[in-house]
Amino acid sequence: MATTQLKENTSIGISIRMMIVSYIISFSFHCKMPALNSPGDPLSEDYGRNLVLSELVRYWLRDKVAPDSLLVLGAKSIAPYESGFRIYRIGEDGPTGEIDYSGIQEANFNAFPGCQPIRMTIPPRTRDIITFTGSSSNRIAVHRYTNDHKLSLLEDQAGIGIPSHMAITTDGTTAYVSNGASNPNSINRYARNPFTGSLSVNNGSNYPFSVGCSPVSLRTSTRDNLVITATTSYNPLGVEVYKNFGTDSGAFASGSPYDPGTNPSSHNNLCLIESERLLYMTAGDANFPIYGFRYDENGTMTVLPNSPFAPDSGTHGPASVDNYSTSMTLDPNGKYLAYMYAISGTFYLRLLTIDVTTGNITPTDQKYSVGNAPKHLEWDGSGKFLYLVSDTGGSTNNFQLEYFKFSNDGTLSKGPNIIIAPMGGSFSVSHMKSLPIYY
Fold it and tell me: pTM for the complete prediction?
């Protein structure tokens, strides 16, 4: 009886409190002086309504991204020669080890998968896979991987010269592609149909434009209509910024190419935060290998006051020297950088925070040792996982997939390694990209 009475009293108390809260809320919205009913007045009813509505609209228009798949591109360097990509399933806790698709097939000089595929590009907010087939074939193939995990080939065409890097605008309609066959190297422009995934050359009158030799990274800023590349071989070295003024007009930004005083490293490592106009790159400086810049709407760059940055004391430089690898990556929210480096023969992954106000980057205490020759660092589009490829060396000699689960508070937790293939020519990894699901 006492227990029943207590429950009733508790229920009544909750009901009374709810009524009081409701009354206060109602009073705050309805008992206003007419002069306060202004959308620009934080105390007004209209202001409150507009604020709630704008937050709801922002939430429903925001991309809902979930981890789903991981693409691993590679080739066999011993007979029978094969190449192509595998698609690994990603679960809530990371890679499951399950292979949804294994497209490793006989090498083909005249079509996908080519002979030595080098890179893949995923257009923003899509499930399309654009592959450069590499040396001897130099084709550009486009696949689409549906949400129900079905793969189809959309297009397979010859590229211009030797295509090696691609950057796509955030609306998915324009792609920029480097050509390593021209002298000096150049950047071509393609139009992309976001519905069919098809690519068609769209150079116009101001493309291609020439850049320095051996471009190692290519990015685009849709906000400011910029094309940014970094070159490492022969002069001019540094970062080149091209400003588009319209469909068929453009010019290099003032001061381009920007020479940071050291050679950009041979990695696909230009990390761009468009909203803050911040750019980070890896350099050949062994002790301070990360350079930071602020640029304006015209593409004119200024080195950050505290640049260059060191991820650790005693750093010996980036983790690998593979031109098509990646040793630094930016989280999708633009708050953290992940960087792989070497100290005395041991390789590490470290998380660094970004202060968007100053541009400074600061090492966190999130530091992990990883396998030999780590490369192809990739941040999942959902922001939940970091992936990399390394090898075990020693007596086991396997290529392996390593991954870390990432929490929004900046905490990494390492998952178990997954064996990809034995070393020794059976399947060497050329590139790796995440393929999340967008809702």
Answer: 0.84
